[in-house]
Structure formats: structure tokens, C-alpha cells
Amino acid sequence: MLRSKLPWPAKSPRFTRQAPLLRNIQTKSESRRPPLGFAFDIDGVLMGGLDPLPKARNALRILDGDNPLKVKIPYILLTNGGGYTEQERAQKLSSRLDVQISPSQVIQAHTILKCYVQEYAEKAILCLGGRGDTMRKVAESYGFRKAYTTIDLLAWNPAIWPFIHAEAEFALAKPIDFSITPISAIFVFHDPRNWGVDVQIMCDIIQSGGILGNPYVDTNTQQTNPIQVIFCNPDLLWKSDFPQPRLGQGAFRESFQAVYKKLTGSEYPYVQFGKPTKPTYEYARRVLHNLLNDIYGVGELPNMYMIGDNPESDIAGANGAGWDSVLVHTGVYNPTSGIPPTHLPTHEAPDVEEAVRWAVEREMSRVDK
Q: Are residues 245 and 99 in the same domain?
């Protein structure tokens, strides 16, 4: 492993909220454009459950200017997680990491759905995942004016899924008659809490052509004139604070497809976003480019580094986008297993601080040549 040989500033033994490590990334304070930018996964890289990983604060302090370049190095947080507005996620991370993170730096799995607002702003959409009416609030913050949830559907007709009683949550429901309200799209914003009811509702909407309770249309019509279905996170597994990885939204998608295929004989067409998909990395590239242009003025995007813990999402996506990638050993990937990562990174590092130091030194050595 490459050890630091450049004149890094001495590490501070302690960091406090009174002295934020990272001021707002959009503040125009430097004139020298840095030669690199970063995209960080969150869980398993910066955070371990609700708590920051040990080297996360040091890594962000380096990006704040405590580096041999003496400049702020721009970064974004690119996660397959979600469940909050970007503002809420930025506030939570700022508090826990002792930094000031702007909502514009946060790209969650469902952030890319902002691109669909123009098409669906006035059409009824079903928002799956999250707790209660959280995903409706996120969708409405993006500009979707007719966003509905599983709770809305169950409050309208509890017989949709007679195996649970959700009366306690019906107070959160929007009163709407779904027998005359066509659902135009199903957006799986975040991991569903009850797979059974959500798979049932998805199949009902698709098979009935968007009107719940209507007779089912033939499979060919379902396929040629489909209800738009978008999954925002392909992760089969994700790292929580439980010792072993947990099933994610990718597993829910597989469950839905298995049931739909059993019912109809074919899989259902869908759009997949989230790491490692190309559209998500293109979206992230545009976000970071805009941040850089806000700080330094219009210019070229520097070399991009993705720091992640999951070879299947972080590393595969970065490699496909032509970014450099660093796989850290603090999350999904287990370096002691003896099994090499399924997608080879540019570099491996024990933690996020070493990953950042390696990338900065690498770019500096190129500049010095």
C-alpha cells in the first residue's frame, strides 16, 4: 500500500462542531481549480449504521483544504440509500460527521427521479418504500403533485391486502377514489417495508391498466402499453449495523418479477437507476460539474474518484463511467475472505482516509511530472 510521502499537514487530534471541517462547498473562495473530485458512498465508507466510521472525519478534513494542494476538493455523496429529502439527509450527515454538507452534494437513489417531474407532475404516481407517508413528501418536494402511497390505497380499500391491519397509519392517507384515478407510473423510491402488499399492488395496477379494481387487460397490452415502473436501487445486498449484509431493493425487484412472471408468463419491462447504472453516474457527473462551475467558473471536469465498499455497485459503476475507483475494507467487501472483488478497483484501501490520501498523492504526482 502507498504510504504518504508528501508534506501532509499534521493530523488534528480532535474535531468539534464549533469548527466545521467543511464549509459550504458552493462558497466561491478559491481560484485554483483542483485536479480531482470525489464521489463517496455513505454506508460502509463514511458511516457504519448511525455512527461515523473512525476515519471519516479525517477524510473530509483533507477535502476541506488540509492537503498539500491547499485547496478545497469538491465532492458529492452518491448513495443507493434514500428515504429522506436531500435536505434532511444533508442535515443528518452534517450533524453526525461534524461537517457542513449542502443538499446539492447529496445524490440518493431516488434523486434522479427529479428528471421525471416534467412528465408526471400532474399525473397520479405510486411511490413505494419508506415509512408512512415519507416517500410522498419526498416526491412532492421534487414537484410531483399527485403522489400516492401504499397507505393511501389500503385506506381506500383495505381488502386489497387483507393480511395486515394498517388502521393506525390511515390517518396519514390522502382520501382518493382509485377506481377513477388512473396510476400512470410506479416509482420504487426506497426499500419497501412490506413486500407482499407492494408486490400485490404493483401487479394489480399493471394488470388492470392503471385503474385498481378494473378487469385485467391481456399480457400483450400490458407489455406494449406499459405502466412506467422505475426501481431506484439495484442492490441485492447492503451493509447495515447488523454483522451480515441485508437484502435490499434489488431483492424486492426480483421478488416482484418472479411473481409477475408466474402470473403472466413473462417479465415486466422496467427502468433501473442507482449504482452501478450508467444514467446514475452520468447524473452524478453533471451534479459535480455544476458544483465546480459554481465555485471556480466554467471549466473542465477533473479526474473523478469513486470511493466505495461494494464492488457490484460502487466499483462496477465507476469503472463503467471511466472514473478511477477505490475499494475500502470497511463495508460490504470482505478482504479476508480470500475471494477477489468481482469488479477490480483502481486501488484498494483499508479505510476512507487512506483512499483520499492515495488519490490526492496520485494526482499531485501527475501534476509534478
A: no
- Ramachandran region, residue 44 (left: φ > 0; alpha: ψ -120 to 50; beta: rest): left
- The helix (H) or strand (E) run that includes residue 349 is strand 347-349
Range of the domain at 310: 36-109+277-368
- What are 260's three cell numbers? 409477475
In angstroms, the CA 192 to CA 150 distance is 10
Answer for the pair 326, 348: CB distance below 8 angstroms, yes or no: yes
Contact by Cβ (8 Å): 367, 10: no
Distances from the Cα of 253 to the Cαs of 188, 210, 231, in angstroms? Answer: 9, 19, 7
pLDDT value of residue 71: 87
- Residue 366: what pLDDT? 80
In a domain, 17, yes or no: no
Domain contains 206: yes
102 and 146 share a domain?
A: no
- Asked if 32 contacts 299 with a C-beta cutoff of 8 angstroms, the reply is no
Q: How many C-beta neighbours within 10 Å does residue 175 have?
A: 8
**What is the tally of structural domains in the chain?**
2
Would the pTM of this model clear 0.90, i.e. be above it?
no
Strands in 147-148's sheet, in edge-to-edge order, are 147-148, 125-128, 185-188, 228-231, 271-272
- In this structure, is residue 122 part of a structural domain? yes
The answer to whether residues 214 and 100 belong to one domain is no
What CATH number does the domain containing 40 carry?
3.40.50.1000
> At 81, which amino acid appears?
G
Residues of the chain with pLDDT under 50: 1-30
Please report the pLDDT score of residue 166 as a whole number: 73
Residues ≥6 apart with Cβ < 8 Å to 134: 83, 84, 190
